[in-house]
Amino acid sequence: MTLRLEATVAARGLDVSLEVADGETVALLGPNGAGKSTVLGVAAGLLRPDTGRVTLDDHELTGRRVVPPHARRTALLAQDPLLFPHLTALDNVAFGPRSAGVRRGAARDRARGWLAEVDATDLAGRRPGELSGGQAQRVAIARALAAEPRLLLLDEPMAALDVAVTPALRQTLRRVLEGRTTVVVTHDVLDALLLADRVVVLDRGRVVEQGPAAEVLARPRSPFAARVAGLNMVSGRWSDGAVRSGGGRAVAGTPSGPALREGDPAVAVFRPRAVSVFREAPGGSPRTALPVVVTDLEPHGDQVRVRAGDLAADVTAHAAAELDLAPGSPVIFSIKATEVDVYPR
């Protein structure tokens, strides 16, 4: 089922055009307040747009006769499983088919099948109060799929779970989402890479970039996507072998992809581990030297991540101590041009 959504919601600053192909999983990324959950609300029928049109497999859900949420054959799964507390896991999963008129026995058979699909067969007789967070979310996934939705909407389904159970649930989702038309809101780069065919990045209610998940996260064109991917990004215009930002930064690099002409909008992307930190500007091979002020220090594996506003560098603990780094320290972030990828914005 193909989803086509064009919607404006003035009160939330949303103006979005989005398409999800039949059987495709699209991940919505973006900072808090970007409009991700609003898009899901419009698709599910929980929120009526001021203007726009929503169609599912060419069947219009908006317009003069708005199709109500229960008649859209969409399923929305959020952080909270929202299971019925008085029903067992089996009857929670059977609720969707029963609501659609399926006989009790057949609905329970379907529910058992979906519980098996999400590795939760042994939970059938338990009530929600007897389930852990991960177990409850597995049951909630089974309940959503048992209703045989034409469109599955997932709003950060693993955000509230313990990190110990997230990997297993992510693998379950990866298996059951294959071939299903799905939109998943997430802040986790692994969710985007492992679950999604395509990524759409929202910022301030607008789509700012989109494309195959691996490509967007390897070559981000928006600050949020760069941050999610763990990359530094400087945006500006290509001039004299460097990307020059409106704020006065100039980052030399190597253009990749389409040729850049003087003055073209461009982005420079480089990894934190490619950044050297100095107290004074170094000499030597061609480098970018950016005067910055340290805003935070945090552990990062066996290194220390030095943050300076929207930029970051990874250094050893010994180097951090030797440089006497602390929030407020003025330093130079230095990057060799060969470590910087430049491409059109």
Summarize the structure.
The protein is α+β, with helices and mostly antiparallel strands and 345 residues long. It is built from nine helices and 22 strands.
End-to-end C-alpha gap = 32 Å
The structural class is: alpha+beta
Average pLDDT, to the nearest integer?
89
Question: What's the CATH H-level homologous superfamily of the largest domain?
Answer: P-loop containing nucleotide triphosphate hydrolases
Q: Order of strands in the sheet with the most strands?
A: 6-7-8-3-9-10
CATH level-3 fold name of the largest domain:
Rossmann fold
**What shape does the CA trace take?**
elongated
**What percent of residues are in strands?**
25-35%
Number of alpha- plus pi-helical segments = 9
- Sheet with most strands: 6 strands, mixed
Compute the CA-based radius of gyration.
24 Å
CATH arch. level architecture of the largest domain:
3-Layer(aba) Sandwich
Helix content: 10-25%
Number of domains: 2
Assigned CATH class of the largest domain: Alpha Beta
Instruction: Give a count of the beta strands, DSSP E runs of length 2 or more.
Output: 22
Query: Which stretches are poorly predicted, pLDDT < 50 over at least 5 residues?
Result: none
